[in-house]
Design brief:
heterodimer, A: mainly beta, 14-stranded antiparallel β-barrel, two-stranded antiparallel sheet, 16 strands, B: mainly beta, 5% helix, 55% strand, globular
Chain lengths: 305, 502
C-alpha cells in the first residue's frame, strides 16, 4: 500500500527533524554527560523496572525485544519535566507498526536543559519473536539504531576564540532479548548505546554512557505484575523494583522503588487509546512528572501484559 | 525461654501448621466445645523483630531490648440460657503491642460478667476492658459513638429501660493511671476514675437526657460534671442540643441558681459565645435538612455549633482545649452514580492560641464497578498549607491495592507525598504484599511481606523494609499535615496459632 507507506515515511521524517534540528540558545560550559532519553511513563511509574515488562512502545528505548508486546500500529507522545520549574523538559514522539511478523518502531525525543543545552535522541528498531509457544510463551529479540545529538553554547579556553553554538551527533546501536518460558514469567536483558562512544568537543568529550539492563517480571493472572531490574550505567549499578495492578476499570495502578526513591502512576486504557501519568522522586524535594498518550490503529483483541 | 529455643519452637510450629492437612482435620474446623453454652480459645503469638532503630526514646520501646517476644493467651466464654455471660482471659509472656510493658508469668488480663434481660435490663462487671459508652450524641464527653475512655478500666456498667422510652444507666470505672510508667505525661492528663449516672427518655422524634458525673482529673483534681441533652422536631428537620458543665470539687460546688453559669451579659459583638462559662461545653446540630430529586440527586445540609470552654473537664478527666466552632456541611449524592460530594465550611476559634480561622474542606467519594473506590479531598485552612489528596482503592478477590497521592501546597515549596499499599493472594494460603511511601517529596520508604494462613488456626507473616507501616493511609488522607515516619530497616516474623472455637 504505497499511500500508507508514504504517510509513515512523512511521520518518520518529521520525527527525525524534531529530534535533530538545532535550536538557537545561549549558555556556558560543556555538559558533563549526555543524558538524553525517551520518556517512558510506565517505566517511570514502576521505578524503572521495565526491561522485562514491555506492553508499551517505549520499550524500544529500553529493550527493543519488548516491542513485540507493544500492540501493533501505535502512535505515542510523551512529556516529562522536573517540578519547581527546574527543568529539564523532555518531549518525545514514537510510532510502531507490525509487518511480516516483525514490529518496527521509531522514536525521537528532545530534552531542553535550563542552560539551553539541547539533547536529542532518535531510536529506530525492530523486534521479532523467534519462538512462540501455544500458551503465550515466547522468545523475542530486538535491535535498534540509536542516534544522539547534543547542542550547547561552548566557550573555548583560548582567549581569542569566541563563543559558539556547538552541535555534535553520534550514532550507536541497541540490542535486547526477552524470554517468557511461561506466560507469567518474563526474563530479559538489553543494552543500549552498545558502542559507548561520546561526543567529541575540541580536545574533550561529552560522555554518553552505555546502559546494560537485565531483569525479571512476574505477571500474575494478567492483572498483577511485579518487576525487577538491575541496571549498569557506566560504573553505576542500580536496582529497580516495581509493580502494577490492573483494576476492573481499565485503570492500572503502578508504583516503584529505586535507590530510596519512590515513584508511582496511573494508566487508563480506553481501548483505542491509552493515557498515563507518573511521578518519580529525582532527589530531595524534586519530583519529575511524566504524561503520555498512545493511539492504537490495529490493536489486537488480546493484550499481553 | 532462650531466644534460640524460641526460634526452634517457632520453626517447628510453622512446619506443622503449614503442612497440608488430612481430610480428618479439615481447615477451619473448631475444636469441640467444653460445654454446649461455652467456648474457649488458646492463642499463641510470637514475633521476632530486628531493626536498626534510631531510638528517639528507646526507653519507651520494650522491643528495642527484647527482639523476640511471645505470649500465650487462654480465654473462655460461658453463655448459658437466660442472659448471663461470663468471659475471662488470662495471658502469659511478653505483650507484643509496643505501648505496653513486657510482662512475665501468667496473669488474669481481661474479663467481664454481664447479664441482660429482654433488652430492658442489663448489668456488667468488667475488668480491664474498654468500650464504655454514654447517652448523648454530640459532645465527646458522653458520645454514643465513641468510648468515654480509650484505656482499659475496671468497674461496673448497669442500665435499665423502663416502659420502653425511659432509660437509666450507671457506669463506674477505675483506671490504673500511668500503668507502665513509660512516656512523658500528657499536658492535661486523664483521671483515674469516673462514675456517671445518665437518664434518658424518647418519644417519637423527641428525646431528653440528663447526665451526672464524678471524676478525678489530673488537671482539676476531683471534679463533678452535669449534662443535659435534647432533641426536638422542627418541621422536616430535627434539632439536637447538648449542654454540659464541669466544676472542680464536689457537688457542693455545683449548686445554686447558675448551675451552668450562663450569663448573657458577657456576650459582645465579637464574642457571642461568651455567655457560656469557661467550665461549660455546648453543641447544637440540625439534622434532616435534605431534598431529593430524581434528576439532580439528593441535597442536604447540616449546620452546627460546638463550644468547649478552656476549663471544661470531660468525664474522663481530660481538659478541653477551648474551642468554638460554627460549621455547615453541605452534601450532594448523584442520582445514578455512587458518588457523594461533601463540603464542610467551619469557622473555628482556638482559645489556647487565641487564634481564629476559617476551614473549608471538600470530599468527593465515588464507587465504581469491580470494587474500585476513589476519594478526593481538599482542605483549606486559614494560615496553613492547602492540602489536596486523592486516593484509589481496588479491592477484589485476587488483590487489594490502594494508592494515595497528597499535595501540601505552599506556593513554591509544595510537597508531594505518595503511598501505595498492595497485597495479592497467591492461592488460598499465601498473600504477597508491600507498601511504598514517599514522604513530603523527600524521603522514600518501602516494606514487603509474605503472609501464610493455615486452616484458620495458623497465621504467619514475614516482612522487611525501611519502615514499619502503621497507619500512613489514614494520615495521608485525613491528617492536617504529613507527620514523619520512623525510618528503620527492619525484619519481622510474626506467628499466631489458635486452638478452640471462639
Amino acid at each position: 500500500m504505497p499511500q500508507r507507506f508514504c504517510a509513515y515515511r512523512r511521520i518518520i521524517t518529521a520525527v527525525w527533524v524534531l529530534a535533530v534540528a538545532p535550536l538557537p540558545a545561549a549558555g556556558d560550559g560543556i555538559p558533563a554527560r549526555f543524558e538524553g532519553f525517551i520518556p517512558s511513563v510506565r517505566s517511570t511509574a514502576m521505578g524503572g523496572a521495565f526491561v522485562g515488562l514491555g506492553d508499551d512502545i517505549t520499550a524500544l528505548a529500553v529493550n527493543p525485544a519488548g516491542l513485540v508486546t507493544s500492540g501493533g500500529t501505535v502512535f505515542s507522545g510523551a512529556y516529562s519535566e522536573l517540578g519547581g520549574e527546574l527543568g529539564p523538559w523532555t518531549g518525545s514522539l514514537a510510532a510502531s507498526h507490525e509487518a511480516w511478523g516483525t514490529l518496527f518502531a521509531a522514536s525521537a525525543s528532545q530534552m531542553r536543559l535550563p542552560d539551553d543545552t539541547i539533547e536529542g535522541l532518535f531510536v529506530a528498531g525492530a523486534a521479532r519473536n523467534l519462538i512462540e509457544g501455544s500458551a503465550g510463551s515466547f522468545l523475542s529479540v530486538g535491535a535498534a539504531v540509536r542516534v544522539g545529538r547534543i547542542s550547547f553554547d561552548w566557550v573555548p579556553e583560548c582567549p581569542l576564540c569566541s563563543e559558539a553554538r556547538v552541535s555534535r551527533t553520534v550514532a550507536s546501536a541497541d540490542a535486547g532479548l526477552m524470554l517468557r518460558p511461561l506466560p507469567f514469567i518474563s526474563l530479559a536483558v538489553a543494552s543500549d548505546n552498545l558502542f559507548g562512544t561520546g561526543f567529541d568537543v575540541g580536545d574533550g568529550e561529552v560522555p554518553w554512557d552505555r546502559t546494560v539492563r537485565y531483569g525479571a517480571a512476574w505477571l500474575h493472572e494478567d492483572r498483577f505484575a511485579v518487576s525487577w531490574e538491575r541496571r549498569h550505567t557506566g560504573d553505576r549499578v542500580t536496582e529497580h523494583f516495581g509493580f502494577g495492578v490492573r483494576t476492573e476499570l481499565p485503570l492500572e495502578i503502578m508504583a516503584g522503588f529505586t535507590s530510596d526513591r519512590v515513584s508511582g502512576g496511573l494508566r487508563w486504557d480506553g481501548g483505542r487509546w491509552r493515557a498515563a501519568a507518573a511521578f518519580s522522586q529525582e532527589d530531595e524535594k524534586t519530583i519529575e512528572v511524566s504524561v503520555s498518550i498512545e493511539v492504537f490503529f490495529d490493536r489486537p483483541v488480546v493484550i499481553t501484559q | 525461654m532462650r531466644g534460640r529455643a524460641r526460634i526452634l519452637v517457632l520453626a517447628f510450629v510453622c512446619v506443622i501448621f503449614a503442612a497440608p492437612q488430612s481430610p480428618a482435620a479439615p481447615a477451619g474446623r473448631a475444636v469441640a466445645d467444653s460445654a454446649e453454652a461455652g467456648t474457649w480459645q488458646a492463642l499463641y503469638r510470637s514475633r521476632i523483630f530486628l531493626s536498626e532503630r534510631s531510638g528517639s526514646f528507646p526507653w519507651n520501646d520494650p522491643l528495642s531490648e527484647a527482639h523476640v517476644s511471645d505470649r500465650v493467651a487462654v480465654m473462655g466464654l460461658w453463655r448459658p440460657p437466660g442472659g448471663l455471660e461470663l468471659f475471662a482471659k488470662g495471658a502469659t509472656g511478653t505483650v507484643i503491642e509496643r505501648d505496653e510493658r513486657p510482662r512475665e508469668g501468667f496473669a488474669f488480663e481481661q474479663g467481664h460478667l454481664s447479664y441482660s434481660h429482654a433488652d430492658r435490663l442489663g448489668g456488667r462487671l468488667f475488668a480491664y476492658e474498654r468500650g464504655l459508652r454514654g447517652l448523648n450524641r454530640l459532645l465527646q464527653l458522653v458520645s454514643n459513638d465513641s468510648p468515654i475512655a480509650s484505656t482499659p478500666g475496671e468497674g461496673v456498667d448497669a442500665s435499665v429501660r423502663v416502659a420502653g422510652p425511659v432509660s437509666a444507666r450507671y457506669t463506674g470505672a477505675a483506671f490504673k493511671a500511668d500503668r507502665d510508667g513509660s512516656g512523658l505525661p500528657s499536658p492535661t492528663g486523664g483521671g483515674d476514675f469516673f462514675s456517671i449516672v445518665s437518664l434518658g427518655a424518647e418519644a417519637g422524634s423527641w428525646n431528653a437526657g440528663l447526665m451526672l458525673g464524678d471524676t478525678r482529673s489530673q488537671a482539676l483534681g476531683d471534679a463533678v460534671l452535669v449534662g443535659l441533652s435534647c432533641g426536638v422536631p422542627a418541621g422536616p428537620a430535627r434539632v439536637v442540643a447538648e449542654l454540659a458543665r464541669s466544676a472542680a470539687g464536689s457537688w457542693d460546688d455545683l449548686r445554686g441558681e447558675k448551675i451552668f453559669d450562663a450569663d448573657f451579659d458577657r456576650m459582645s459583638a465579637g464574642e457571642v459565645s461568651r455567655w457560656l462559662s469557661p467550665n461549660a461545653a455546648a453543641a447544637v446540630e440540625v439534622l434532616g435538612l435534605d431534598i431529593a430529586s430524581k434528576r439532580y440527586g439528593r441535597f442536604g445540609m447540616i449546620p452546627g455549633y460546638r463550644y468547649a470552654g478552656e476549663r471544661f473537664a470531660d468525664a474522663g478527666g481530660e481538659v478541653a482545649a477551648g474551642t468554638v466552632e460554627s460549621y455547615l456541611t453541605v452534601w450532594w449524592r448523584h442520582p445514578k452514580l455512587a458518588a457523594l460530594l461533601s463540603v464542610n465550611a467551619a469557622d473555628r476559634y482556638d482559645a489556647s492560641r487565641e487564634k481564629n480561622g476559617g476551614v473549608l474542606s471538600a470530599t468527593l467519594d465515588t464507587r465504581f464497578r469491580g470494587g474500585v473506590e476513589t476519594r478526593g479531598t481538599a482542605l483549606l485552612r486559614e494560615g496553613y498549607r492547602g492540602v489536596f489528596a486523592f486516593s484509589i482503592i481496588d479491592d477484589t478477590s485476587l488483590s487489594r491495592v490502594s494508592a494515595t497521592a497528597r499535595l501540601d501546597d505552599a506556593g513554591g515549596e509544595s510537597s508531594f507525598s505518595y503511598l501505595t499499599e498492595a497485597a495479592v493472594n497467591i492461592g488460598r494460603r499465601f498473600t504477597l504484599g508491600g507498601t511504598l511511601l514517599l514522604e513530603s517529596s523527600a524521603r522514600g520508604y518501602y516494606s514487603a511481606g509474605l503472609e501464610m494462613r493455615g486452616g484458620g488456626r495458623f497465621f504467619a507473616r514475614a516482612s522487611f523494609g525501611s519502615y514499619v507501616p502503621v497507619s500512613e493511609y489514614v494520615r495521608l488522607n485525613y491528617g492536617p499535615s504529613v507527620t514523619a515516619v520512623d525510618g528503620e530497616m527492619y525484619m519481622s516474623l510474626y506467628v499466631r496459632v489458635s486452638l478452640g472455637g471462639m
